[in-house]
Amino acid sequence: MKSDIFGRTLLLALMVAISACSYDSMIGISPRPIPPIVKATVDPVPQPVVKPEAENPGPARQQLPQDVPVAPTVEEQPQVPAAAPPITKPAAPVVAPLNERVANLSATPDREYRNETVQEDTVWHGEVHVNGWLTVPPQVTLTIEAGTIVRFIPSGDGDSATSGLLVQGRLVAAGAPDKQILLTGSYAQPAAGDWQGIVFLASEKKNLLDQCRVEGARVGLDVFHSQIALRELSLSASGTAIRLQDSDANIAGGVISSCDIAVKSAESELDLRDINISSNRNGIMVGGGAFYLTGATFYGNSSAALVAENCKLKVTGCSFTVNGTGVVLTGSEGAVSFNRMLSNREAGVNLTNSRIRINGNNISQNGATGLKISGAGSVVWGNVIAANNGHDLEYSGDEDLSVMGNWWGDITPDRILSRIHRGDSSGRVLFMPVLPQRPQAVL
Questions:
Q1: 3-state DSSP assignment of residue 413
Q2: What distance in Å separates the CA atoms of residue 52 and residue 33, rounded to the nearest whole number?
Q3: pLDDT per residue over 255-280, tens digit each?
């Protein structure tokens, strides 16, 4: 019985399988093998993939119509701090060499001369050109009005190529604070030697220059056996600003700067008041004669502010600061009173074989020595002599030197003595008694 049932069941399963195969054939379905995996010919939308820079040249951009802007390809770069821009010095101002400077001449001057002599009294105004030399003979007066510009243009060849004004008669150049007279060369940027200068030769008239500017000359004012009065002059960019020989000069106010020598005087009578002499190589150099100097300011002159030899002098109420040396006197006599000699590179005052009364001055904070004296004859009292970087006083001489009654700062007599240097001198320095406090009259 059981075997009969099993046989029937097996027969039924076989018939069902045969029927299924016949149905697949009837509808056209036949089994297919599984195809191999092949990369699709059209890639799906690419997703951003971060790869090393060497392996990722970046995706190709899709071609778009020309009127559609295309964003640039952005490639990831490593984050490196931006380098700071290089530090450069500001460009230095360009200064034209002397042979490349630009002339500053009017095409139509009001007057023009070429190696001439003025025949009669003449008045200048506007702009005047002098080519070569112009001579003002005796008995003739040249007057220059306020605001006039006078340009001197060298003519000739080589060393003879000069230009200037020779005054044997009289010169009156009266400017005003707002209309100064300009006496210069032909260039917009003056330099020493552009023209020779103004020469006064045996002119004993009352020559006057007031509110004038003199620039770019070899010798701005060259005065021989003449008389001259200068008021509020500005002299600059010259070899020597003022040179005097056997002459009489009265100078009040004004400024002298950027010259090799501000004033050079030989055997002359010189009166200077309230003048500013700054930023020159040498200030005033005097040989012989006499001079009176009051209320003057000497600042930043690289060599010496005042040098005088074999002359009579009086120097009062002046300031000598930040120069090479303040005052240098040799073989001279007179007085140096109530001045300031401060912060000069070398000595404040240097005296050699001179007879000078030194009283009421402030001689302090100089780079080497405050007061240096060689030879007897000078007397020093009522001064402030202190805080100089070397010695406050240096003395060399065979006779005793009196420096009694000065203030040496708040230091003891032993300390004062250590600030005095005698070298090989056989003469003594008599500094006691000292002032107990700073004198009020000293500036």
A1: helix
A2: 41
A3: 999 999 999 999 999 999 999 999 99
174-232 pLDDT per residue, tens? 999 999 999 999 999 999 999 999 999 999 889 999 999 999 999 999 999 999 999 99
8 A C-beta contact, residue 280 and residue 256: yes
pLDDT band at 353 (very low <50, low <70, confident <90, very high): very high
pLDDT grade for 41, boundaries at 50, 70 and 90 = very low
Q: How many residues does the chain have?
A: 443
Q: Output phi, psi for 110, to 5 deg.
A: -70, -35
Structure tokens at 206: 């009352």
Cα–Cα–Cα angle for 260, 265, 268, rounded to 5 degrees: 165
Is the pLDDT at 60 greater than 90? The verdict is no
What are the counts of helices (DSSP H) followed by strands (DSSP E) for the chain? 2, 39
Q: Residue 85 pLDDT > 60, yes or no?
A: no
DSSP 98-164: GGGPPB---SS-SEEEEEEE--S-EEE-SEEEEEEEEEE-TT-EEEE-TT-EEEEE-BSSGGG-B-E
- 166 is written with which tokens? 């020779």
- Distance of alpha carbon 354 from its chain centroid, rounded? 37
Q: Are 274 and 295 in contact (CB under 8 A)?
A: yes
Counting other chains too, the contacts that 264-270 makes at CB distance below 8 Å and 24 or more residues apart are 264/240, 265/289, 265/291, 268/223, 268/244, 270/244
Distance, in Å, from the CA atom of 144 to the CA atom of 389, rounded to the nearest integer, reads 51
Check pLDDT > 70 for residue 79.
no
Q: What is the mean pLDDT of the chain?
A: 84
Q: Which secondary-structure segment (H or E) carries 441?
A: none
Amino acid identity, position 92: A
DSSP state letters, 19-47: HHHHHHHHHT----PPPPP---SSPPPPP
pLDDT confidence of residue 61: 39
**Cβ–Cβ < 8 Å for 213, 183:** yes
The type of residue at 314 is K
Closest CA to 371 of 398, 403, 399: 403
Please state, in angstroms and rounded to a whole number, the distance separating the CA atoms of residues 151 and 216.
11
Tokens standing for residue 277: 């002499």
Q: Rounded to an integer, what distance in angstroms lies between the CA atom of residue 415 and that of residue 376?
A: 24
Residue 357 CA to residue 348 CA, distance in Å, equals 15
- Tens digits of residue pLDDT in 306-321: 999 999 999 999 999 9
Distance CA 391, CA 367 (A): 9
